[in-house]
Amino acid sequence: MSLIRNPTNENLKSGLGQCIAEMIAAQEFNRQKQNQQIKIVYSVVTIGTIWQFLQIENQVVS
């Protein structure tokens, strides 16, 4: 599963917290509603010219 987050004020760091929250929510949604455990969720935060790639696995973001 992957997510893309685009911060509104052109500050890459401002989108990281919300992106991580969305990654956790996606894991939880799939665990509860879809009855499946997705081990890794990938995500990216971008302002168009700069991209920050993230992944969450076992509650660890890297």
Written account of the structure:
This protein is an alpha+beta fold and 62 residues long. The chain contains 1 helix and 4 strands, in the order βαβββ. The chain has one helix at residues 12-32; strands spanning 2-5, 40-46, 51-57, 60-61. Strand 3 (51-57) and strand 4 (60-61) form a beta hairpin. The radius of gyration is 12 Å and the shape is elongated. The two termini are 15 Å apart.
What tags apply to this protein structure?
single chain; 62 residues; 32% strand; alpha+beta
Question: Strand order across the biggest sheet?
Answer: 1-2-3-4
Shape: elongated
Biggest β-sheet strands, sense, barrel: 4 strands, mixed
Assign the structural class, choosing from mainly alpha, mainly beta, alpha/beta, alpha+beta, or little secondary structure: alpha+beta
Q: For the CA atoms, what is the radius of gyration?
A: 12 Å
Instruction: Name the average pLDDT.
Output: 80
- Total count of domains: 1
What fraction of residues sit in β-strands? 25-35%
Order of helices and strands: EHEEE
Distance between the termini: 15 Å
The number of helical segments is: 1
Uncertain spans, ≥5 residues at pLDDT below 50? none
* Number of E-type strands: 4
Q: Helicity range of the residues?
A: 25-40%
